[in-house]
Amino acid sequence: MSARLSSASALLGAVSLAASGVAFGACTGPGAPTDTQTKCLTAVQIPGDPLRSFDISFVNPHRAEYYFADRSNAAVQVIDTRHLTHKRALGGFVGIKLNNMGAVDNSHSGPDGVVTHGRWLYAGDGDSTLKVFDLESSASTVAQPPLSTGGTTRVDEMDITSDGELLLVANNAEDPPYATLFAANGDRSFSAVQKIMKITVDNAIIPAGEGLSMEQPAWEPRTGRFYVSIPQIADNPAGCTFGGPKFCQGGLLVIDPHSSKQEYGAFDAATNTGVLSLSDCGPNGATVGPNANLMLGCTPQNVPTNITTQVINAKTKHFVEVGGLTGSDEVWYNAGDNRYYTGSNRAKGGAGLGVVNAETNFLIEKIPQGSNSHSVAADSKRNRIFVPQVAPASVVGSGGDTTTVGAGICGSTNGCVAVYVHHVDGERDDDGSD
User: Fold this and answer.
1) Mean pLDDT to the nearest integer, 203-218
2) Is the pLDDT assigned to residue 433 strictly greater than 90?
3) Smallest Cα–Cα separation from 155: which of 107, 204, 119, 220?
4) pLDDT digits (tens, 9 = 90+) for 263-310
5) Closest CA to 31 of 322, 429, 413, 411
């Protein structure tokens, strides 16, 4: 570790620990190995209640801000990715809802999915609404009234087109699940988000009554399509059942947002739309990497036979499998170092931060994380990787970390956002770089 990194870690760690309830040295234990390329830099403490439940993360490198959906404090938390300090909380969400067993009810808790473009932040809530915030405003309240997607469960993961004009969100917990396309704010100075249409999948592919899901969308600009992870679809392969013993595999829903089509069937190569059947992959996460490639977070939570992560080309549909890594929820491509990062909370051998070379699609390393560490995002200007950690189960109960890994990384028993760094020759940390 360089002297610059070592001194920065000590300084930032001291600042972070001052905000912690029960504090000790951050970046210690199995989650901070010294022999990895990706180094534990510090831990950012989050004010308020200890972290019991959170969901998706996002980074806007041009604003030098990291956002994550913190259900424990009913807010989207904002962290300065340059100075690695907590900036503010965007509130008004439903927070944690519990089921009749006292466990977190993910289907009705919020916030959930989050994405930004320019000054606008979009976040899903547990009451089936989309909330819009103006990051240029000092107010921490919504910029316009929440928009309903017409369901009774959460608005989950989402993505936005490169120009910020079209936003696709998934209602993963509806039965059957569906997506909603919105006209977003682009680069305008006022908020006027409007619902365009509800998008469904043919019942023969995602049958009602089976409790199936629709997960992370990813916008791929070369093909002009949204690609949405579907954990399981019917008849893939023929004769499969959702509960096994011959498990149904997942699919990839390809949506043309400029089409008026509202229901998609089997994949149509002529239009590059519809549900593509995947081989040995029941994905949660999806992210767009180089050369129109997409990484899919195959997970045995969906299909017990999945033992790899998959990278598929959006144009050709050819794919390769990344060995030694599975069980990912959110996955993220970092253009700053040309690597994929995975929130692999259901990885074999325990939760881990997966690091994959995006050119060779080989697993570089897997760094242990606290249990339920399923969210990840990276700042491409600074090559800093942000991984939230829940507090120990002894502090928050069901849903908390059942290992000692997260507390070692955080330097506290409150949970935190762990910050990793991968130094790249010639990297820049200025607002003019793209």
Assistant:
1) 97
2) no
3) 107
4) 999 999 999 999 999 999 999 999 999 999 999 999 999 999 999 999
5) 411
Q: For the whole model, what pTM was predicted?
A: 0.93
Q: Place 427 in a pLDDT band, splitting at 50, 70 and 90.
A: low
Nearest to 111 by CA among 144, 139, 133, 143: 133
pLDDT given at position 40: 98
At 100, list the tokens.
């009749």
Single-letter code of the amino acid located at 68 = F
Length of the chain: 434
pLDDT at 333 over 80: yes
Q: What is the 3-state secondary structure (H, E, C) of the chain?
A: CCHHHHHHHHHHHHHHHHCCCCECCCCCCCCCCCCCCCEEEEEECCCCCCCCCEEEEEEECCCCEEEEEEHHHCEEEEEECCCCEEEEEECCCCECCECCCCCECCCCCECCCEEEECCEEEEECCCCEEEEEECCCCCCCCCCCCEECCCCCCCCCEEECCCCCEEEEEECCCCCCEEEEEECCCCCCCCCCEEEEEEEECCCCCCCCCCCCCCCEEEECCCCEEEEEECCCCCCCCCCECCCCCECCCEEEEECCCCCCCEECECECCCCEEEEECCCCCEEEEEECHHHEEEEEECCCCCCCCCCEEEEECCCCCEEEECCCCCCCCEEEECCCCEEEEEECCCCCCCEEEEEECCCCCEEEEEECCCCCCCCEEECCCCEEEEEECCEHHHHCCCCECCCHHHHHHCECCCEEEEEECCCCCCCCCCCCC
Q: What tokens appear for 202 in the block?
A: 């043919």
Contact 406, 426 (CB under 8 A): no
Give the per-residue pLDDT at 349. Answer: 86
- Exposure string (b/e) for 314-347, b if CB count within 10 Å is 16 or more? beeeebebbebbbbbbbbbbbebbebbbbbbbbb
Please determine, for residue 432, whether its predicted confidence score (pLDDT) is greater than 50: no
Report strand pairing: 225-230 vs 217-220. antiparallel
Residue 357 has pLDDT above 50, yes or no: yes
Contact 405, 420 (CB under 8 A): no
Measured CA to CA, the distance from residue 120 to residue 145 in angstroms comes to 14
Q: Are 415 and 53 in contact (CB under 8 A)?
A: no
